[in-house]
Amino acid sequence: MSEINPKIGVLVMSYGTPESMEDVEAYYTHIRRGHAPTPELLAELKGRYEAIVGGVFPLRENTNGQVAGLQDKLEQLAPGKYACYQGLKHAKPYIENGVEQMAADGIKQAVGIVLAPHYSTMSVGGYIKRAQEKAEELGVKMSFVKEYHMHPKLLQALTERVKDGLSGLAEQTGGMPAKVLFSAHSLPEKIRELGDPYERQLLETSAAVAKAAGATDWQFTWQSAGRTRDPWLGPDILETLPVLREEGVKAVLVAPVGFVSDHLEVLYDLDIEAKAAAKELDMTLDRIAMLNRDPLYMETLAESVTQAMAREREE
Predict the structure, then answer these.
(1) pTM for this one?
(2) CB-count burial class (<10 Å; 0-12, 13-18, 19+) for 174
(3) Binding site annotation covers 48?
(4) Separation between Cα atoms, residue 22 and residue 11, nearest integer Å
């Protein structure tokens, strides 16, 4: 049995991604709850990863970098007080592995945070449930940051990116008016029946960033819906673009505020698929730079963690 560790564990959770092309099948089998993708679907999935410049490896490095960046920021705020661990939903180290490692290191108190600013029972709620169950099993007292979608530093970082993106797009198009399309990963429509806050929180973030960036022409759209029989939230960006073109829009800046790093839904779904669709419509489409290890995002995460621990002490 390990000695009690006075540090506060920080479980940094995210969706996960394969580490190599050889891991793609196992990764999607886990997402599909043990059902392996068909050979045709597997070939399509591998094709998407191969289409991304640099292959799959930068995707995992982004998450590792964010965990390291948060550790650095917490060390600045409270030297020697916090220790970060990674827990992934669909790849190793799994969420349970992260909690197990904390317990093995003697951690007795911890806080969990997801690399996704907006709360949904189907996404962030699922991460929290898995972490909580394992923490209770191992005797780790754990609290959670459920959302941070209106943190001032997150909004500042996104606002700067929208301003920069609009400036760059204006240079490309000779000053043509541009519409800002905020986007996020779609979820099954049934979340609306549950009174889930996901959609409302995304609109709150989008409205706040648009206002701060001075972007008066904007709207929200969805992307990257799963392939299931149940209907997913829409319209998808690939359905939105033709409608905008009919309305006379010729330049679009995509701001995927539901995502915090460069990964498949950004590098393929937007940079390749959506750009190709826009080109066919004779539209110019660009997107904002992702947060990745942006100092303001690291500060958002660190302050959210320390505030959660402060609330825990008060209670």
Answers:
(1) 0.95
(2) exposed
(3) yes
(4) 27
- Cβ 254 vs Cβ 162: under 8 Å: no
Angstrom CA distances, 148 to 155, 191, 202, 204, 289, stand at 10, 20, 11, 11, 20
Structure tokens at 202: 């995304």
Here the tokens at position 119 are 């709360």
Torsion angle of the four alpha carbons 43, 46, 51, 56, in this order, in degrees rounded to the nearest 10: 180
Cα–Cα dist 112/144, whole Å: 5
Which residue carries 């700067």 as its tokens? 160
Q: Which residue has the tokens 């960006």?
A: 237
Could you check whether the bond before residue 93 is cis, i.e. omega within 30 degrees of 0? yes
Look-up: residue for tokens 């050889």?
A: 22
Mean pLDDT value across residues 183-206: 97
Quick one: which of 253, 171, 248, 242 has its CA closest to 209? 253
In this structure, what token pair is assigned to residue 306? Answer: 């320390």
**Domain architecture of the chain: domains with CATH:** 5-148+294-314 (3.40.50.1400), 152-287 (3.40.50.1400)
Q: Where are the beta strands (DSSP E) in the chain?
A: 5-14, 82-88, 107-114, 141-145, 179-185, 218-223, 251-255, 284-287
Give tens-digit pLDDT for 3-42.
788 999 999 999 999 888 889 999 999 999 999 999 999 9
Say if residue 265 carries a ligand binding annotation: yes
Burial of 215 (0-12, 13-18, 19+ CB in 10 A): buried
Cβ neighbour number for residue 244 with a 10 Å cutoff: 20
Q: Flag whether 127 is marked binding.
A: yes
Q: Angle of helix 198-213 relative to helix 152-173, nearest 10 degrees? A: 60
What distance in Å separates the CA atoms of residue 63 and residue 44, rounded to the nearest whole number? 24
Of 160, 165, 6, the closest CA to residue 83 belongs to 6
